Amino acid sequence: MTAEIPDKLYFKIGEVAEITGIKAHVLRYWEAEFPVFSPQKSRSNQRLYRRRDIETALLIKDLLHRQRLTIAGAKKILNRKTAGGGDAPPPVQSAKNRRIIDEIRRDLERLRDSLSSTPDSH
After folding, report:
1. Does this model's pTM top 0.70?
2. For the chain, which domains are there?
3. Fewer CB atoms near the end CB (10 Å): N or C, the chain?
């Protein structure tokens, strides 16, 4: 999550899409799926995202795309972390922990592949 977020109070959906690399229709879908991700709306019903909304979108993107969680799994993590932590989005895992998890995931995939290619001994 190293996107550069400009120093502004509010962002339109197109700006958020550009900053995060997430398409506008996906952002709208995530609003329906993740209650913690809910931008304000202007009088003309235009979405107005704040910095924390962008940070939350980047966190959701990380959970779904890089950590490969399901929507349900990402919801559980977000709900668990925000239950005791106010408005701020939860911090992402440290780079070291991510590398360890990625390495374990690769090891498990190799093990699964080797087991599926081994003829059954029964």
Report:
1. no
2. 13-91 (1.10.1660.10)
3. C
